[in-house]
Amino acid sequence: MKKADIFEFFRRLAEDNPHPETELESVNDYTLLVAVALSAQATDAGVNKATRALFATVDTPEKMVALGLDGLKQHIRTIGLFNTKAKNVIALSEALIADHGGQVPEDRDALEKLPGVGRKTANVVMNTAFGHETFAVDTHIFRVGNRTGLARGKTPSAVESVLERVVPQPFRLHAHHWLILHGRYICKARRPECWRCPVADLCAFRPKTPPPVQKAASA
User: Fold this and answer.
1) Which of 2, 5, 22, 191 shows the greatest Cβ crowding within 10 Å of its Cβ?
2) Of the residues 120, 154, 208, 215, which is catalytic?
3) 99 flagged as catalytic
4) More confident position, 215 or 114
5) Is 138 a catalytic residue?
6) For 136-150, what is each residue's pLDDT tens digit?
């Protein structure tokens, strides 16, 4: 995708949604970190449903450790891989207390050292909690980057590297949110809805998906 087309790509997404936000619910930096860690291979809606009651009372690492593994499992048992995720959340909470005074560090390398926290999770926290220009490449961004020609790569890290290089100002801060939402609601995995896509003419995907055939109204 050409430089001018990339600028126009993000300009249109920004015009359509000037203030994009994560759809994961949280009450502070710590609960955001936990929510993102829980969201791996799960939907944001499913995580939100499981964590609303949890975050109403458990909003610090100390409270999470006090809740304990079994107590946490009871809250998140509807989330995929909840046993492993519960162990990681307790472990990362203990690490935050031991190594960071109970605070979420504003440092990507430090975040990635926490149990159950990979680069994508660290990037989301750095962007959403601390306002850093990071690109958290999930399945949606990986698909959109490759399908549109915006950022092609064989791995999430390769796509991230391309995004780091090509995304222009003033769009860098919110770019990953726009791409996630675009992939979630328009550029869908099975059938992209090209007929209502605001950037279809800039996209390399061929052939474009036609609109669904409307059934004739019954007489």
Assistant:
1) 22
2) 120
3) no
4) 114
5) yes
6) 999 999 999 999 999
